[in-house]
Amino acid sequence: MRIGEFARKNSISIETVRYYMDLGLIVPVKRGGQYHFDSKSMKRLETVLVYKSMGFTLQEIKKMFHFMSLSRLHNDSERAFYRQFFKDNLIRINAELDRLETAKKLAEEALESIALETDGEGSVIGIPLTILSMLSCPKCGGNLELEAVSVRNNKIIDGQLSCTCESVYGIEDGILLISPVYESVEYKNTTDARIEYFETTSDEYVEKIFIAGEWFRSVMGKLSQGLKILEPGIGFGYALTQSLASIPPGTTYIGVDRNMNRLKALKAYFEKSDLKFDLVLIAADFLQIPLREKSIDIVMDMSGSSNRAFESENFLLREIDGLIKDHAEVFGIYIIADGMNGEYVDPKFHRLFQTKAVVEELKALDYLIDTDYTTKKVTSGGPHESFVDYVKSTWSYCCHARR
């Protein structure tokens, strides 16, 4: 029979047959430029597959075939030599069984520990009474007067803040509403945003995020107490998740996002953690953050500026610079891309997706870069990183800067 029929009858690919031929495990007869596979070839393949199922490598099988072709097992030494192949293999199998038994016990213990773990006492997330002096009306800059309806652990859960300019801002379920947008946060595969993101985003893109986060965490170290930190574009809090161990008690971490539904999901997620610092969530546009001038010590620019750059020529940190102290730090992760499609993103916005432009913007704000890092380029993303489909490649520029 020809190679195609031989492969089909044995449920293997033609490429596998050719590979076995290259190794000399199958030696068909060649007639008229075509290989013909007979019953001997069939029996030889059956032997290969049986030996493979025993755990022998192809090179070991090849070595056995060579030995058997040179001997007929007519004396004790030949039989002892041949038996040694199977003895060695049996030793490997027993060792693997021991390893699997140990692995099984460890997996069972890990599964049991996960099932028994609790999320601790949890945290109350709301607007701390202690930061009211930091807040100001985003329209006129005036003072905000509190009318609290519900306060728990010195945090406002429900209420409102009003200004003399007649602006009123609600506090709903512990989140301050300035300009909320109720965009859908439904997911196709699961009900959990983090799981779906992980399952649907390409491995190389997830690895890029992981490497950037690991670098960022190592550079961040342990922060001083009492700092006021701002993360514009907190999203689902991936950066916060990676930096929890670095944020000491007494810190105020302010996360801003326009999507109220996403903030609610974020709040529900972090309420299960025993936070030692105050997490303040504000539903607002980046240009309507209700903070007094020069009130922020550290900016966590975890792609906030990059996400803004998809729709604006202006560097986000420049637009919110009035909120940041003269002596401040920036921890930044910026989306960099080449070959960006002009139909997806207006060419006038492309500049801020270049490392040189990001560095220039930071220097223009008097930041000096202490250290930086550039991740590897990736070419695939996923439904939640669809912009990757419209660029040649993308990577992250990570930096720590201070002024």
Plain-language structure description:
- With 403 residues, this protein is of the alpha/beta class.
- The strands form 2 sheets. Strands 3, 4, 5, 6, 7, 8, 9, 10, 11, 12, 13 and 14 form a 12-stranded mixed sheet that branches. The protein has a two-stranded antiparallel sheet with strand order 1-2.
- It contains 12 helices and 14 strands.
Topology diagram in text:
Layout: H1 3-9, H2 14-23, E1 29-31, E2 34-36, H3 39-54, H4 58-70, H5 76-116, E3 127-128, E4 145-152, E5 155-162, E6 168-172, E7 175-177, H6 193-200, H7 203-220, E8 228-232, H8 238-243, E9 252-257, H9 260-270, E10 278-283, E11 296-302, H10 304-309, H11 316-319, E12 324-338, H12 355-364, E13 368-374, E14 393-402
Parallel strand pairs: 7-10, 8-9, 8-11, 9-10, 11-12
Antiparallel strand pairs: 1-2, 3-5, 4-5, 5-6, 6-7, 12-14, 13-14
In helices, the fraction of residues equals: 25-40%
Number of strands: 14
Task: Please outline the major beta sheet.
Answer: 12 strands, mixed
N/C terminus separation: 78 Å
Structural class: alpha/beta
Shape: elongated
- In sequence order, what are the helices and strands, one letter per element? HHEEHHHEEEEEHHEHEHEEHHEHEE
Estimate what percentage of residues fall within beta strands: 15-25%
Runs in which pLDDT lies below 50 for 5 or more consecutive residues are: none
Give Rg in angstroms: 31 Å
Mean pLDDT reading: 92
Number of DSSP helical runs:
12
